[in-house]
Specification:
The structure is a single chain. 8% of the residues lie in helices and 42% in strands. The chain has 475 residues and is mainly β. Strands 2, 31, 32, 33, 34 and 35 form a six-stranded antiparallel β-sheet that branches. Strands 1-7-6-3-36 form a five-stranded antiparallel β-sheet, with no helix packed on it. Strands 12, 13, 14, 15 and 16 form a five-stranded antiparallel β-sheet that branches. The protein has a single domain (7-474), classed as Methylamine Dehydrogenase, Chain H, CATH 2.130.10. It starts with 19 loop residues before the first strand and ends with a strand.
């Protein structure tokens, strides 16, 4: 059963039900062309034994599927049977360290972990499709494969060797490879960029560059010619990590005097195009990257002024159990332009409306100039610190926005699905899981992506905890 909580805090209440429902109650009508499955992952359980996990990012993962066929929507949910979850169930307590939760360990166990690290494979951040196979991902290079039809866990395929990675691999337009980077820690820490054709396959090396010191990067940029690592000044304190006295999140320090270093690597030969220094900022999510034809590399981000967002997402704050202070900071769609020859870096906002959890028409415009971005954020008229309560469509060229909101509702990431006979970049739908606070349950919202008007909603009989990312798999 779920925990009863008021308002948006319901989105951070543990859900224990696993369900399979052949048909959800549907209001409105779906486009006839919408056939396939929205697959999502996210944290759903924060209580393990007698303890409570610390941060939104720490919850044990649950998979969700919304399948569309013949104008109807089915729904299923199932816990990801990661090694992390299996260990917790066997021990009756949290065993693996998560982003901001460090389980109680003896001094011997801490020292032992330095030589034989036990990294979490709690894939609660994103899902990815490689060929016909699907994996759940977190920020360690340990994927969990699952069946998209039943959501059953299938195995633990080998991934790229290393310590820290992103759950946001890019898809190579030509080969279909997943392109990602992994950080290898040690006295001479490095970033390794690689391509991967299938889970368990052999990674194809693309580039290696020194990490001095390693920065926390949740995603990265990919243009037609370059890989872009935005090294924000939230940097690793190696001694804190080595001593194992704090969870992963507390091993980083905000050092704004470093600025942000944009490490640009050539995708063709792996050479370092340059390291370009810009103003200090922080971001979880890249939106897009492309060459503008005039020698500049354009990198669009959902940027924060600093890294205080990490602290604001601790569970006691989000559940209202501790003073929230200034609340959750806002991110803004921000463009960084890098002069690859001259070295200058300029930064400007593209819109004054807050924006997070961004999506684009990825198959059509990733790596290329684009016009539209969709996301979720605090409504522009909402008080500062309000949690995500609005879906936003941004015209990247003008900064103008169109929004969807409903009183007492809290939407998640809007996943864009292009119409098969696409006539324009924004021809399609956006799919968002929305918490209805008054009803105490969630629904899947289907918006026309062009006009940003509601087409339909499919109602789930319980709340779905707030998650992060998902992908649409066509039938």
């Amino acid at each position: 059963m779920s925990t009863t909580t008021a308002g948006h805090a319901q989105g951070f209440a543990t859900l224990t039900e696993e369900v399979a429902l052949e048909r959800l109650p549907l209001r409105g009508a779906l486009p006839g062309w919408l056939e396939g499955t929205l697959l999502r992952t996210g944290p759903a359980q924060w209580e393990v034994g007698a303890s409570t996990l610390t941060h939104w990012f720490d919850g044990l993962a649950m998979l969700h599927s919304f399948s569309f066929a013949d104008g109807e929507v089915s729904y299923a949910s199932r816990f990801l049977q990661s090694r992390t979850r299996q260990a917790a169930e066997a021990a009756g307590r949290q065993v693996m360290g998560e982003f901001a939760t460090d389980p109680c360990r003896s001094i011997f166990q801490r020292v032992h972990a330095l030589f034989r690290p036990q990294a979490t494979d709690n894939g609660n951040v994103n899902v990815a499709q490689l060929g016909e196979r699907f994996v759940a991902l977190t920020e360690t290079p340990m994927a969990v494969e699952f069946d998209p039809a039943t959501l059953a866990t299938l195995g633990f395929p080998r991934w790229a060797p290393g310590h820290v990675t992103t759950a946001h691999p890019h898809a190579d337009r030509d080969s279909g490879e997943a392109i990602n980077y992994v950080t290898r820690l040690g006295p001479r820490a490095t970033y390794h960029v690689y391509g991967l054709a299938s889970p368990g396959g052999r990674p194809r090396p693309i580039a290696t560059v020194a990490a001095r010191p390693p920065a926390y990067m949740h995603s990265f940029g990919l243009s037609e010619r370059h890989v872009v690592l935005a090294e924000f000044p939230l940097v690793l304190r190696p001694l804190a990590l080595a001593l194992g006295r704090a969870p992963f999140a507390d091993c980083f320090a905000w050092q704004p005097s470093r600025g942000t270093t944009f490490t640009v690597l050539d995708r063709r030969d792996g050479s370092l195009r340059g390291r370009f220094r810009g103003e200090p900022l922080f971001a979880f999510h890249h939106v897009n990257a492309f060459e503008d034809g005039d020698g500049r590399l354009v990198v669009d981000l959902c940027a924060y002024a600093d890294a205080s967002i990490v602290r604001s997402l601790y569970l006691d704050r989000l559940r209202g159990e501790a003073p929230v202070g200034a609340g959750v900071p806002d991110a803004f769609l921000t463009r960084v332009e890098i002069d690859l020859d001259g070295g200058a870096v300029t930064t400007r906002r593209l819109s004054e409306a807050p924006l997070e959890l961004p999506r684009i028409n990825y198959g059509a415009v990733n790596e290329r100039p684009y016009r539209w971005a969709w996301g979720a954020a605090r409504g522009a008229d909402a008080p500062p610190g309000t949690f995500i309560d609005t879906l936003v469509k941004v015209d990247v060229e003008s900064g103008a926005t169109t929004t969807w909101s409903e009183p007492g509702c809290w939407p998640g990431e809007p996943v864009f699905v292009a119409a098969p006979a696409r006539a324009a970049e924004d021809d399609g739908v956006c799919l968002s899981v929305v918490l209805d606070g008054a009803a105490g349950r969630s629904f899947l919202l289907v918006l026309d992506a062009a006009g940003f008007t509601e087409l339909a909603r499919a109602e789930v009989p319980h709340h779905i905890p707030f998650g992060f990312h998902g992908q649409f798999a066509r039938a």
